[in-house]
Amino acid sequence: MAERQGQTVPDALLTRIGQVVMLHHGGDREEARRRLLALWTEIGEDGAPLHRCTLAHYLADTHDDPSDELAWDLRALSAAQEHAGSVEVRALYPSLHLNLAADYLKLGRAEAARSHVRRARTAAVALRDDSYGDGVRAAISRMELRLGEGRGESGDVGRGGREGHGEWDREW
C-alpha cells in the first residue's frame, strides 16, 4: 500500500497477486502457478523486493516438489532481506522462516529446519496480537513440537488463534 494525500492507495500488483492466490485457494493450483509465474516474468529479477517476496512466497505453495518449494521460499527470503527496514516485511519474516523450516523438514534436513523455526520464533515479536499473528505463533509452536523444540524460546505456545494460518497454510 502506498500513501497519497493522507489516504492509503492499493498496490495494483499486490492486488493481482491476491486474486491469483484466491484462484489457488479455490483449487486451481496449476493455473495459479502459471499466472504467478507470468507475474514473476513481468516484474523480473529486479522488480520491487516486496513484490518479489510476495510472489515467491506464494509460488512456493504451488509446487509439489520440496526442492522447488525451497528454491522459491529462499527467493522470498532474499527479496525480503532487500526490503528489511519496512514494517510489512518484518511481519513476513516469521512466516518466511516457518515455510523454510517446513521445506527443510520435508527434505530430511532437521537441523536446518530447527534453525529456521528458531528464527521464526525470534521474528514473531514483530507480529500483532490479531488472528494472523495468533495463527503464525500457533504454527510456529506446532513446528517446534514436530522438531522436538518444545514450547519455543519464548515459552509461547500460541494464543488460541486459528489452527491454520490463512493464506499461507502449509503442512505443519
Give short descriptive properties of this protein.
two-stranded antiparallel ribbon; 172 residues; disordered N terminus; globular; disordered C terminus; mainly alpha
Structure in words:
Helix content is 63%, strand content 3%. It has helices at 12-25, 29-43, 49-61, 66-82, 87-106, 110-123, 131-146; strands spanning 2-4, 7-9. A two-stranded antiparallel sheet has the order 1-2. A hairpin with a 2-residue loop joins strand 1 (2-4) and strand 2. Helix 4 packs antiparallel against helix 5 and helix 5 (87-106) runs parallel beside helix 7.
Topology:
Elements: E1 2-4, E2 7-9, H1 12-25, H2 29-43, H3 49-61, H4 66-82, H5 87-106, H6 110-123, H7 131-146
Antiparallel strand pairs: 1-2
Helix pairs in contact: 1-2, 1-3, 2-3, 3-4, 4-5, 5-6, 5-7, 6-7
The SSE string, one letter per element, is EEHHHHHHH
Structural class of the secondary structure composition? mainly alpha
Gyration radius, in Å: 16 Å
Main sheet attributes: strand count, strand direction, barrel closure: 2 strands, antiparallel
Gap between N and C termini, in Å?
30 Å
Low-pLDDT residue intervals, each spanning 5 or more residues: 3-7, 152-172
Helix % is: 55-70%
Q: Beta-sheet strand percentage? A: under 5%
- Largest beta sheet: what is the strand line-up? 1-2
DSSP helical segment count? 7
Silhouette: globular
- Residue-averaged pLDDT: 85
What is the count of β-strands? 2
Oligomer: single chain
Short description:
With 172 residues, this protein is mainly alpha-helical. It is built from 7 helices and 2 strands, in the order ββααααααα. Strands 1-2 form a two-stranded antiparallel sheet.
